[in-house]
Design goal:
Strand content: 25-35%
Shape: globular
Radius of gyration: 22 Å
Largest sheet: 14 strands, mixed
Number of domains: 1
Structural class: alpha/beta
């Protein structure tokens, strides 16, 4: 029965007269509504742009960015691999994705600045409505903001810059730290990995480069927010994070796009290198529109006694295929994967986690929660591999699914490969519906049916939302509320 746990966890936040949510003595605006994400700016910069992918376009991207020769070679090699590889024959159905009708590169002409005042007013308004500048002032060590194919804002607070932390637009990092970028770029996720990794290698643009020196512990999180605005837009940002020995950092990504009724594509790539004794936390809230195919790739290499934490929320996109991966290469390495997926009408959320135990005494934990509504499909697809020499490993996988009606679907597809006997591995999967008894209990205490459903859902996802920084937990809860609207009947 869900009632005791969920009623405890789903305590309602206090609101003052201004409508601000007060939690733990702090006040945060939670006035998000669907128009914040779905309203688009005019996009005259896309007029006359030829859709589709070609060698000419790849060369143009590299020339526009004045890239070194090695990067152009990498792009052209990736383009060749892209044409050779087939679409995935498993997972979500991608047969309707028209790759010839995507804009792979568009510059809004805003330039890049470390001053919000220099960002064009119509673009700055988007980020103001999303609360990014306010969050930077209050709780963040630095912020990056990407609009279409370009970063339009990037800034790091001076106290962290003085300690040697580097937080740059990837395009700038290629020029300012060429040796470091070349050493790590697409070494965690090679362009041969799959078709969309190859596509990314050919047309990537923008993104974040984050370098944390040895033993530096960044107290406040850093954030990047990626916004697609134009119709049929594709976004291919590259995130490269290097956390040196004994360092500690938390990084947050947010994503959104307006709804046009015509396909968009997101095929970003995240590479994280966590060195010995270091800790990295990567959190993301992905809220693409129903038009978007979200085919993102995220992977970390975790060395000796290091810790990698993934916290994610996936909703909005019509199709998602996303499986953050931890490669535990060093003895004593550990990882945590915590994720929420919400599948509403006409959505296919194909998400999960991959963990490779490649060294002894490594530990992993995967907690995945999904919610399906109005005929939506949510799948957990995971892989757990323990190498023959990786003795004394501990791994735990927990998949919980909540169905809000009789027409939605959920599946759990685990792939567990254990190559030695000296391990402790547990896997648990549960599926449940909204309990009529729980709903009756809440209604008998004067709570409306729709609010009662929302309380149970909030209790269900609370173990993951509580791991997000406070402001982003509020955002996640508000996004779930938006998805829950109209769930009665």
């Amino acid at each position: 029965m869900l009632r005791p746990k969920n009623l405890k966890q789903a305590a309602r936040p206090r609101r003052d007269e201004s409508g601000i949510v007060a939690t733990g003595g702090r006040a945060i605006f939670s006035q998000l509504n669907r128009s914040v994400f779905d309203d688009a700016n005019p996009s005259p910069y896309t007029e006359g742009i030829k859709k589709g992918l070609s060698e000419e376009l790849v060369r143009q991207i590299s020339a526009d960015k004045n890239e070194p020769a090695w990067m152009l070679v990498h792009r052209l090699e990736s383009l060749k691999i892209f044409h050779e590889k087939e679409l995935p024959a498993w997972g979500a159905d991608l047969s309707a994705l028209d790759l010839t009708n995507i804009i792979y590169y568009a510059r809004a002409g805003a330039g890049n600045s470390d001053d919000w005042g220099e960002v064009p007013a119509e673009i700055r308004k988007v980020y103001d409505r999303l609360g990014i500048p306010e969050a930077e002032r209050k709780v963040l060590a630095g912020v990056g903001a990407q609009y279409e194919s370009e970063m339009i804002y990037h800034n790091l607070k001076k106290e962290w810059e003085d300690l040697g932390v580097v937080f740059l637009d990837m395009d700038d990092a290629v020029h300012q730290y060429p040796d470091l970028v070349q050493k790590y770029f697409m070494k965690c996720v090679p362009n041969t990995d799959h078709k969309f990794a190859a596509l990314h290698g050919a047309v990537w643009s923008g993104g974040t480069f984050l370098y944390v020196p040895k033993n530096v512990k960044v107290r406040d999180p850093l954030q990047a927010y990626f916004r697609m605005n134009a119709k049929n837009m594709g976004q291919f940002e590259h995130t490269l994070i290097i956390v040196e020995e004994g360092a500690d950092v938390a990084y947050i990504e947010g994503c959104s796009a307006p709804k046009y009724g015509s396909q968009g594509l997101h095929a970003g790539l995240v590479e994280i290198f966590v060195k010995a004794g270091a800790k990295a936390r990567y959190s993301s809230v992905e809220n693409w529109s129903r038009d978007t195919y979200n085919l993102n790739t995220k992977r970390a290499i975790v060395e000796r006694d290091a810790t990698m934490e993934w916290i994610g929320g996936n909703m909005g996109s019509g199709v998602t295929m996303l499986y953050p991966c931890s490669m535990l290469t060093g003895e004593g390495a550990r990882c945590d994967h915590l994720a929420i997926a919400f599948a509403n009408k006409n959505q296919w959320q194909d998400t999960g986690a991959k963990v490779f135990h490649l060294a002894p005494h490594t530990t992993s934990r995967v907690v995945s929660k999904s919610i399906s509504k109005a005929g939506g499909t949510a799948l957990y697809r995971g892989k757990l591999y323990v190498a023959p020499h990786a003795h004394d490993c501990t791994a735990n996988v927990e998949c919980d699914a909540l169905l809000l009606d009789d027409i939605s679907r959920t599946d759990t597809i685990p792939d567990i490969q254990i190559r030695n006997n000296d391990v402790t591995v547990a896997h648990e999967a549960t599926v449940g519906k909204l309990s009529e008894e729980d709903l009756f209990y809440l209604q008998s205490r004067g709570i409306a049916l729709e609010q009662a459903k929302a309380m149970i859902v909030n209790g269900f996802i609370e173990p993951i939302v509580r791991e997000l920084p406070l402001e982003y937990a509020v955002e996640m809860n508000r996004l779930i509320e938006l998805e829950m609207e109209g769930s009665v009947g």
